[in-house]
Amino acid sequence: MAEKSAVTRQDHDRTILPVYAPAQFIPVKGKGSRVWDQQGNEYVDFAAGIAVTALGHCHPALVKALHEQGETLWHLSNVFTNEPALRLAQKLIDATFADRVFFANSGAEANEAAFKLARYYAAHRHSPYKSKIIAFHNAFHGRTFFTVTVGGQPKYSDGFGPKPADIVHVPFNDLDAVKAVIDDHTCAIVVEPVQGEGGVTPATQEFMQGLRELCDKHQALLVLDEVQSGMGRSGKLFSYMHYGVKPDIITTAKALGGGFPVSAMLATEEVASVMEPGKHGSTYGGNPLACAVAGAALDIINTPEVLSGVTERREKFIQALEAINEEFSLFKAVRGQGLLIGAELADTYKNRAGDFLKAAAESGLMILVAGPNVIRFAPSLVIEFADISEGMERFKQAIRKVVA
Ligand SMILES: *Cc1c(COP(=O)(O)O)cnc(C)c1O
């Protein structure tokens, strides 16, 4: 085998498009919820690649699926269909409200497909003027130009020229604000059941139910972005299942492939039926390698043991965070759903979430932030209880450094 050349963190700043500011260390190996860097330092992983490696790093069943498919068939394109994609589609249909699946490679692409489908459906079934999309402040839907514009943070979409039009943003969890803007020209309401990047804020029951009713009243589609909240993270397979609300379209990505890039848009037959060959597509979407891994991940995640394990692990996290709060008075709120947990910093630590993230890394712990004021935890759904305890000990060390 050819010798691999040595690389350092400095190479990042020289060679990679300067859109990221990664940690100073380079992870080289992971197993379960532990990660090791180039220097051999070990980390407890409460981040899971931003809610992606839901079964931990290098889960044996996923490695096996990847290995077997890797020796069988890698890629065809959608000029041909393939067995892993068909199996995965059936599993997703069996497990959800959906009748039809479109595969893509990232959350943004699944959302792009969803938003295009919602627009197309309205134009096809109702009127070409029924194009308004209602979305929410602080929402995040990805970085393609359509999805970033539907997202509720203009700082991410400004500066790239004229934006896709007829997208309206209102405050999250504010049903009256939606009522004030919805009309018969609305094609869709797009919402994350739990706003992830925007601060780990779950939708209220009243809000989700109200959105469904407003959609029905105005013949608009309810599109749920479950890219982060889906695939078991909430304690149910999808977060919408907590609300008893039936969506028209959902998207899933992040944990779907457990670390292998793959995403899906799920829709009802009625909505899907307006599409025809050539209207949308993707070269890689439904790639056999991706679907083989995702199929193996779904088989494990969609079991009572794993899903109820999420709720048990959440309790352990919440207890530990409450104990930390008693000692340090760090948080003003701890919220979220399942193993998507946000701890909002008290005013004393305003805008300092990043300081805690850095200190945690120095103490051997990987965590996330969601904006400047929220520390976010999105660990593996099967993280060992001992890893939770050890991670929380390291978190306390980190906190002592920051508050000292
Ligand atoms: C991460 C995320 C996306 C974007 O996914 P990518 O794979 O980065 O394109 C979209 N929506 C939500 C809710 C997300 O958390």
Mind explaining what this structure looks like?
The chain has a 7-stranded mixed β-sheet, sandwiched between helices. Strands 1-2-3-15 form a 4-stranded mixed β-sheet. It has 2 domains: 9-59 and 304-403, Aspartate Aminotransferase, domain 1, CATH 3.90.1150; 73-301, Type I PLP-dependent aspartate aminotransferase-like (Major domain) (Aspartate Aminotransferase, domain 2, 3-Layer(aba) Sandwich), CATH 3.40.640. By secondary structure, the chain is of the alpha/beta class. It has 15 helices and 17 strands. The longest helix is centred in the C-terminal third of the chain and has 25 residues, at 304-328. The protein has helices at 9-15, 48-51, 60-70, 83-95, 107-125, 145-150, 154-157, 175-181, 205-217, 240-243, 269-272, 288-301, 304-328, 353-362, 385-403, and strands spanning 27-31, 34-37, 42-45, 100-104, 132-136, 167-170, 186-191, 194-195, 201-202, 221-225, 249-252, 263-267, 331-337, 340-345, 365-366, 368-369, 374-377. The N and C termini lie far apart (49 Å). The chain is globular, with a radius of gyration of 21 Å. Bound molecules: pyridoxal-5'-phosphate. Pyridoxal-5'-phosphate is lined by residues 106-108, 111, 140-142, 192, 196-197, 225, 227-228, 253-254. Residues 106-108, 111, 140-142, 192, 196-197, 225, 227-228, 253-254 line the site of pyridoxal-5'-phosphate.
